[in-house]
Amino acid sequence: MLSHTSSSEDVSDKEEVVQVKQLENVDTDLESQSSSGSGDDDDIDAGWDPKAVARTMRKVDWRLIPVLAAMYTASTMDRANVSLARAANSGQMNIDLGLKIGNRYSIVTLAFFIPYICLEIPSQIGLRAFGARIWLGGATIAWGVVMLSMGFVTNWQTLAGLRALLGVFEATLFPGSVYLIACWYPRSKMASRMTYFFQGALFVTSVSPILSWGISHLHMKSGYHGWQWIFIIYGVLTCAVGIVAILLIVDFPDKATFLNPEQREIVLSRIERDRRDSEHDALTLRKCIKYLCEPRIWLFGIFFGSSAVSVYALAYFLPVILASMGFDNKMSQVLVAPPNFWCIIPAVILAKLSDRYGWRGQLVAFNCVLIVVGTCMFSQLGNNHVAARYAGVFLATGGCQSNIPLITSWAQTTIRSQSKRAFTSAFVVAWGSIGGIIASVSFLEKEAKHGYPTGIFLTIGLNVFTCVCALLLVVWFKWQNRKADRGEVVLEGCEHFRYK
Known about the structure:
Blueprint: H1 2-34, H2 41-44, H3 50-87, H4 92-97, H5 104-110, H6 113-130, H7 132-150, H8 156-170, H9 173-184, H10 190-205, H11 208-215, H12 226-248, H13 261-275, H14 285-292, H15 295-324, H16 329-334, H17 337-342, H18 344-357, H19 361-380, H20 386-413, H21 418-442, H22 453-485
């Protein structure tokens, strides 16, 4: 009995020594990074078996990214399918709900954005309080029920109210996913993981028009119109995704039960070595006000909103633009899909380059150039250059869809503390909805025959602004890093932190 007790104490002493050594390694690694500002994997993974690190992060990848991508797929499809339902069965929904009268349809579409924008920052508090499993999975089920309910509305006012409720629940997902991903990965892996999450959802969403077209053939089955079946089936599918999410989604690293203690320590020590913010700090009103006073966070929001204008413009008006090239209605719908499939390739390549070489603002500016060139090609060339105009659609789509995850990840690599991470993800993503509103009001229906000049030139101007400011921000970050190396400033409250 005595020898057993002595053995237990020895084991306890050894574990304590190991923990002390790990903490010493963290401090040593941070000291070694302070002069170079590096966040390379060799530094981050110091003291761990590389194979163990690789196994752990693969496990995290497969448990985190696919589930978040599935929920975001449901989110993007559900918020956009009101236009697909409206077009189904020769516009039966317009007749049933009187959507062609006045601005009723515009009210229905815009009702989503108001609560979506207002609740994104408050939603981050609930994510930490209730955990990702309950907060994100439960929200997905809730808006699935809302979608299902849309299939039974009898007037446009009820539809507008449900769209607003949809915005309430969906406000949790995108900023919550960005925040969650940022808490799991070091900065040198962030762009690629954001891109996998975003592009995985985009790939599936590209088939949404085809799925809606197929569902519309259930017209008058069991007495329901095609547009009603679209809402009903999408709602059921979303609820199913939410149930799966509750079962599979992972929480924050300090609460992750699917990892053993050693694997949790690997994840947390990588974060600690990279930026020393593995511990949670609560998001408060005082902190929100403080973060709002930082100009660069506003710049990231404007960058995101500028790219979102391009994304929404192509999503809403590309069929009309293709029709102006001489394609009939069927071909205009079919030709929307190839650019959306194509953009996955440049997005993944650029994300890998961003993580490998630390090119953040440089690649954002590069994508802005692609958007401007592509937009000029498809909008300004004549009808005798159809192939070149369609190639411009590929350039513009690839540029704006690549920029969305690049901007969100860049914003996350330049900050410290989990409260700031939560605030920044919500604030930046909220600008995406502002971009959607700008796109909807700047691409004027009365200008459709003339190629939407107001919307086109606004898109070009916003992306030129983003290109110039992104490059200036890169220069400012490098200047601040050099000042920090000389000991003249302390960045983000940590003497070892450098902008990346």
